[in-house]
């Protein structure tokens, strides 16, 4: 259970990007607009089937979504692109019912064919374990996929819930090499730019399937490897969120007027983006540990050690 919850906390940091403006307080009124600038993670591919590290998920998650997401409170996997997961322990099957009416950002349909295509790519690239190595799988209608297994495993839902669905039409039209640099999915944002070793830019998907979201206009991810440069970029307001500040940085930030929210609430990370950029808070916050965001009645968590500029 501990490992399960830690995994949930790590993965759910990906959710932060699409709904951050609602994350600062339970009673905060969501506001639209602004750009969030964060640090990119080291990665090797924007195409999930070619990904060799979970860090890739952070970079492509604004555009590419998974079948499920972890509930931060319970650690359980809940449907996201999926409508439901149904396990039949006797028949050794997992049935995934998909949400209808969702489209990829290029306008093509999200359906059972798209999910099967992604499963095929995982198998093709030697990653059948990411769908629990089924004996077979097939679609039974346009929005239902059934996987058949040879032995019972109580992690089917957890593992399949972490299966990210890339746009088949974009891959087929442009090829594998192109896909490693271009994230295309059903997500709240559309990748507009990728400059190797410099930055990734995402812009708002105006046709996102969740009504009213996202709140931000854009996200920019910067590749900055040196910790001192990261800190300097944050101090100079070139970076809205500083990930994993060291103890010296934390001490200096506190001296500049930041509040260590985690000292009063160990399970809460105070994360406050620029008021000028995101139209939000004006207080200084410094947080380490586990944070919780609230949006449209849902509670999600992320695992962070970060500080953010107040503007």
Please provide a written account of the structure.
This protein has 311 residues and is an alpha+beta fold. Helices cover 24% and strands 26% of the residues. It has 11 helices and 14 strands. It has helices at 2-11, 16-19, 55-60, 112-124, 156-161, 168-174, 176-179, 227-235, 247-255, 261-264, 275-278, and strands at residues 35-39, 68-70, 77-79, 82-88, 93-98, 136-141, 144-148, 189-195, 199-204, 218-222, 241-243, 259-260, 285-295, 298-308. The strands form 4 sheets. A 4-stranded mixed beta sheet has the order 1-10-9-8, with no helix packed on it. The protein has a 4-stranded antiparallel beta sheet with strand order 4-5-7-6. The longest helix has 13 residues, at 112-124.
Explain briefly what this protein structure is.
The chain has 311 residues and is of the alpha+beta class. 24% of the residues lie in helices and 26% in strands. It is globular.
Key phrases:
311 residues, alpha+beta, 4-stranded mixed beta sheet, 14 strands, globular, disordered N terminus, disordered C terminus
Q: Strand fraction band?
A: 25-35%
The major sheet is characterized as:
4 strands, mixed
Number of helices: 11
Helix proportion of residues, in percent?
10-25%
Please write the string of helix (H) and strand (E) elements. Answer: HHEHEEEEHEEHHHEEEHEHEHHEE
Rg over CA atoms: 20 Å
């Amino acid at each position: 259970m501990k490992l399960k919850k830690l995994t949930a906390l790590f993965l759910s940091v990906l959710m932060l990007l699409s709904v951050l403006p609602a994350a600062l307080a339970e009673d905060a009124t969501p506001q639209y607009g602004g750009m969030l600038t964060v640090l990119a993670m080291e990665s090797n591919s924007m195409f999930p089937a070619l990904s060799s590290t979970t860090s890739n998920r952070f970079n492509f998650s604004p555009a590419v979504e998974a079948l499920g997401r972890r509930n931060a409170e319970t650690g359980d996997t809940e449907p996201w692109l999926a409508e439901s997961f149904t396990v039949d322990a006797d028949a050794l099957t997992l049935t995934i019912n998909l949400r209808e009416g969702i489209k990829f950002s290029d306008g093509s349909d999200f359906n059972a064919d798209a999910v099967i295509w992604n499963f095929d790519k995982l198998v093709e690239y030697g990653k059948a374990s990411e769908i629990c190595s089924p004996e077979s799988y097939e679609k039974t209608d346009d929005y239902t996929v059934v996987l058949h297994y040879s032995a019972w495993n109580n992690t089917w839902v957890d593992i399949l819930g972490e299966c990210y669905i890339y746009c088949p039409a974009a891959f087929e039209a442009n090829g594998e090499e192109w896909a490693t640099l271009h994230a295309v999915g059903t997500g709240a944002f559309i990748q507009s730019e990728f400059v190797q070793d410099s930055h990734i830019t995402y812009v708002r998907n105006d046709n996102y399937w969740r009504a009213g979201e996202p709140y931000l206009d854009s996200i920019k991810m910067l590749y900055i490897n040196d910790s001192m440069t990261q800190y300097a970029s944050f101090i100079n307001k070139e970076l809205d969120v500083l990930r994993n500040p060291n103890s010296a940085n934390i001490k200096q930030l506190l001296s500049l007027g930041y509040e260590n929210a985690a000292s009063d609430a160990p399970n809460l990370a105070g994360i406050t983006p620029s008021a000028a950029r995101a139209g939000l808070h004006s207080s200084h916050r410094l947080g380490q540990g586990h944070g919780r965001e609230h949006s449209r009645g849902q509670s999600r968590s992320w695992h962070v050690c970060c500080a953010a500029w107040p503007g």
